[in-house]
């Protein structure tokens, strides 16, 4: 078995008794403390034939269980906590902020909580973005809204400048809510903090509708994104069925990982073609999408195509443009496909009734579904427990239905993608009955 590094870094020994049992309605029996050496198995599959399956459970493949510790590192009344949200929007950001604030305030009695505005840009003094004091009153109903009350951004100042600001603010814990880029930034910030000999805990909460961060069962926001995308596919299907040889085309986000498209296809059962970045496809020729689409229309008189934004980039004109964070700007596969399909159908003298729906930002800006809200609440609360216990360079993750600590370095070591030979893609092929010959993986 591949050996992974799940060793979590801590700032020092935990010598302070946790105040949780003293707070509010909580007694010792309900505090539900987690022993610091409790572990969750990374791999719960029994591998038949393995000489001794227990040999696989080497330390590296055990994940540290998240949760409240009986003894903590920080004295609550000395804590000044910072919260930052970075990268693209994602349903549930406000839920996580709310959970962090309430857990700090009510479970630990922390009274100094500061929101940093507009992501890492808020750590650049040149931007003059005022900090926002946070408390249970001003986060009270934010979970009912999409977006982030703190604002977000791409790009930002140098790591040194970010840490200078953190140092000037006198923070001793920073909660970093963001995607892969954000967590890269968090790791470098934590490295710089360590280099300066500061005791500041950096805890990440992985945010992404793309679901592309590794060692996380499912990122928060993904479920809401899929629910919204299903609505778009429903509309595309309805439009397609209402026209002669109607074609519904829906584009969803997914830069390098096509989970939104794959999960939406499985949830809606209305998509006939699903195009994701992980699986190359041809447009023209006997094995191309256009030919397969014609055949489908001949047979069923309507078709729905669901495409992830990162799919088919090899068919488009490459550009070297990058966004402020250094992410490659993608060409618009949705508009491209819409044009090519209409051109192709017209050239053949066939009906070209195509309706194109791009719900990308509607999906991302939606408020979290109840299940996502519940997940965010648990991630936020457990991020607080981790920080109070002096854990650093760590993300809160759900793995095998347990909340665990994953070192940020491990989580960002590889991107999670839809495996073209894995069970999710197999089910997509099976539900869509898309011709295998169309994809040349
Ligand atoms: N390699 C890196 N080193 C340091 N900081 C980075 C790095 N990549 C990104 N960041 C920082 O992280 C922030 C967010 O990154 P990015 O725009 O890539 O979004 P993300 O966190 O990946 O989220 P998403 O892709 O889901 O929108 C940026 O403001 C940038 O400052
Ligand atoms: O338009 P923006 O803000 O650059 O964001 C687009 C990107 O953000 C994401 O939604 C991730 O947050 C990607 O799926 C997408 O490529
Ligand atoms: Mg990213």
UniProtKB/TrEMBL annotation:
Binding annotation for substrate: 208-210, 253-255, 309, 361-364
InterPro entries (UniProt xref): ATP_PFK, PFKA, Phosphofructokinase_dom, PKF_sf, PyroP-dep_PFK_TP0108
UniProt keyword Metal-binding present: yes
Phosphofructokinase domain location: 81-386
Keywords per UniProt: ATP-binding, Cytoplasm, Glycolysis, Kinase, Magnesium, Metal-binding, Nucleotide-binding, Transferase
Binding locations of ATP: 88, 154-155, 179-182
Descriptive protein name: ATP-dependent 6-phosphofructokinase
């Amino acid at each position: 078995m591949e050996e992974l590094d799940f060793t979590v870094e801590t700032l020092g020994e935990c010598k302070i008794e946790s105040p949780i049992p003293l707070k509010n309605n909580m007694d010792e029996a309900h505090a539900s403390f987690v022993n610091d050496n409790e572990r969750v198995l990374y791999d719960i599959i029994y591998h038949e034939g393995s000489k001794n399956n227990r040999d696989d459970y080497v330390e590296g493949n055990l994940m540290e269980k998240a949760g409240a510790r009986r003894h903590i590192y920080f004295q609550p009344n000395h804590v000044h906590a910072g919260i930052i949200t970075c990268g693209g929007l994602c349903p549930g950001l406000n839920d996580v902020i709310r959970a962090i604030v309430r857990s700090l305030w009510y479970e630990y009695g922390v009274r100094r909580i500061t929101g940093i505005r507009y992501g890492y840009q808020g750590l650049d003094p040149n931007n003059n973005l005022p900090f926002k004091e946070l408390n249970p009153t001003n986060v009270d109903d934010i979970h009912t809204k999409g977006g982030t009350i703190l604002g977000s951004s791409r790009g930002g100042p140098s790591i040194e400048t970010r840490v200078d600001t953190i140092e000037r603010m006198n923070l001793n814990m920073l909660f970093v809510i963001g995607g892969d880029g954000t967590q890269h930034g968090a790791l470098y910030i934590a490295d710089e903090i360590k280099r300066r000999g500061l005791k500041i805990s950096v805890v990440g909460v992985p945010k992404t509708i793309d679901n592309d961060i590794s060692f996380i069962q499912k990122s928060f926001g993904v479920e809401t994104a899929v629910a919204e995308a299903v609505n778009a596919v429903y509309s595309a299907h309805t439009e397609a069925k209402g026209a002669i040889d109607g074609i519904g085309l829906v584009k969803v986000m997914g830069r390098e990982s096509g989970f939104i498209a794959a999960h939406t296809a499985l949830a809606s059962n209305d998509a006939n073609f699903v195009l994701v970045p992980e699986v190359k496809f041809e447009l023209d020729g006997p094995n191309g999408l256009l030919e397969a689409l014609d055949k489908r229309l001949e047979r069923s008189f309507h078709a729905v195509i669901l495409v992830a934004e990162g799919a088919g980039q090899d068919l488009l004109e490459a550009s070297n443009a990058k966004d402020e964070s250094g992410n490659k700007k993608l060409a618009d596969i949705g508009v491209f496909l819409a044009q090519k399909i209409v051109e192709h159908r017209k050239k053949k003298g066939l009906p070209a009734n195509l309706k194109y729906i791009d719900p990308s930002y509607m999906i991302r800006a939606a408020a979290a579904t109840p299940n996502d809200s519940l997940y965010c609440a648990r991630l936020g609360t457990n991020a607080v427990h981790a920080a109070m216990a002096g854990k650093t360079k760590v993300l809160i993750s759900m793995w095998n239905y347990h909340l665990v600590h994953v070192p940020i370095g491990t989580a960002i070591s590889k991107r999670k993608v839809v495996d073209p030979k894995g069970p999710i893609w197999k089910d997509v092929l099976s539900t869509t009955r898309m011709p295998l010959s169309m994809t040349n993986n």
